[in-house]
Design a protein that fits this description.
By secondary structure, the protein is of the alpha/beta class. The protein folds into 2 domains: 85 residues, Rossmann fold (3-Layer(aba) Sandwich); 97 residues, Rossmann fold (3-Layer(aba) Sandwich), CATH 3.40.50.150. Helix content is 35%, strand content 26%. The chain has 6 helices and 9 strands. The strands form 2 sheets. Strands 3-2-1-4-5-9-8 form a 7-stranded mixed β-sheet, with helices on both faces. It has a two-stranded parallel ribbon with strand order 6-7. Strand 4, helix 4 and strand 5 form a beta-alpha-beta unit. The protein is globular, with a radius of gyration of 16 Å. The protein starts with 9 loop residues before the first helix and ends in an 8-residue tail after the last strand. Bound molecules: S-adenosylmethionine. S-adenosylmethionine binds next to loops.
């Protein structure tokens, strides 16, 4: 696959630098990150290039997306071969058993609620104690007026699939709590997006 011919997401290109600024602040010097829903692979390539002491494991549920992710990251020695992973699977077969970070951007609202549950449980199974689950995207925050652009996006998602839509932050955090993950930081990023920083409780059970 030619590097000039890869699928490209303008949104992923725009949001990568502000997310990276937070990663640089939050992450220790080195570690292993497991990314879910890598999409075009732009985030994997951007972050792995900027954080060379980190190993990056891209994954995608959509098998047809894998070759482009691999092609985009081919020049980066710290990006592992792209793997197929559906967040709802249990177990997450073939994934590194212990990771420092699980990262996913713009997944929870473009998938049924089972993906949120699966992601939380899988992250709790694979994160080291006090490892971080980082979730980027738009959410509905109780008591905070939702931006008109996010309301329109939510309506459009629900038209495309009634099981999709922006997730209420409280419900997401409740699901996280059940899995043994607690909110450490809620960061406001540009264009009405949040970066949720969740930490695996030292005692979190790696149950189903
Ligand atoms: C809007 S794209 C986001 C891609 C990328 N993370 C980004 O920010 O540009 C949503 C991605 O979620 C993936 N996806 C959908 N359902 C999934 C699931 N059950 N498990 C893992 N990934 C899934 C899709 O294949 C798609 O690549």
């Amino acid at each position: 696959m030619s590097p000039d011919n890869l699928p490209f997401s303008p949104a992923a290109e725009r949001n990568a630098p502000p997310i990276l600024s937070e990663l640089e602040r939050l992450l220790p010097a080195r570690g292993l990150a497991l990314e879910l829903a890598s999409g075009t692979g732009q985030h994997a390539a951007h972050f792995a290039a900027a954080l060379p002491a980190w190993q990056w494991q891209p994954t995608e549920a959509e098998a047809t997306a894998l070759p482009a992710i691999a092609a985009r990251c081919r020049h980066l020695p710290n990006v592992r071969p792209t793997l197929r992973l559906d967040a709802t699977a249990n177990p997450w077969e073939g994934m590194p058993p212990e990771v420092d970070v699980v990262y996913s951007a713009n997944l929870l609202h473009i998938a049924p609620w089972a993906v949120t549950s699966g992601l939380m449980r899988g992250a709790a199974r694979h994160l080291k104690p006090q490892g971080l689950l980082l979730l980027y995207g738009p959410f509905i925050v109780e008591g905070v007026p939702t931006a008109p652009s996010n309301l329109a996006f939510d309506a459009d998602l629900k038209r495309r699939d009634p099981a999709w839509g922006l997730r209420p932050l409280a419900a997401v955090l409740e699901e996280a709590r059940h899995a043994g993950l607690r909110l450490r930081e809620r960061l406001q990023l540009p264009a009405n997006n949040l970066l949720l920083v969740l930490e695996r409780e030292p005692t979190a059970a790696a149950g189903p």
